[in-house]
Amino acid sequence: MAILAVVALCVYLVDQIAKVLVVSNLYEGQQVEVLGQLLKFHFVKNPGAAFSIGSGSTWIFSIVGVGVLGFVIWYAPRIRSMAWAVLFGLLLGGLLGNLTDRLFREPGFGVGHVVDFLQIPLLPAIFNLADVAIVSSMVLFLILTLRGIGLDGRQPAAETEDAAETEDAAETEDGAEVAVADDADPVDEAHEHKNPQS
Questions:
Q1: pLDDT tens, position by position, 50-94
Q2: From the candidates 116, 168, 183, 185, which is the catalytic residue?
Q3: Active-site residue among 101, 131, 152, 183?
Q4: Is residue 15 among the annotated active site residues?
């Protein structure tokens, strides 16, 4: 769906532009209060996964990232729901943002360090906008799953109602045909009475 591509592109561009601005204006380790203690810019280079998890295994996350990216692109044509398209767009954009860092940033191809710069008191880890998009897609996944919304945007309850309506309509048609047949019987009997057999 086009919405998936648009969301993914927006997430990717915002993430990469933010990282370029951070690298250009802050030195590694620098902290800048944005909203007091609620939000800080804290520039670090992360060799691990989202939220600085798994430092030292960058190449593994690069391979996993490429695999997941391929799966999302392969699976995308099956999506018929706006909500699921947004979900996969967030996931795709976030994966692309961090994968770009791992592939093209120092210290080398496939082992590049991801630029992280967001810090809030609720989390001990430092993260970036791509991480936010990925986590948001997971939250949306839980919501859609709990509500029973499929990739086509339909809920099982709605499908059941449609099936019931179709069945009721069929029964109504059958009942109407029977009623017509019943109404025709007296006429036939009267006709036979007026024209008795010899």
A1: 555 555 666 677 788 888 888 888 888 888 899 999 999 999 999
A2: 116
A3: 131
A4: no
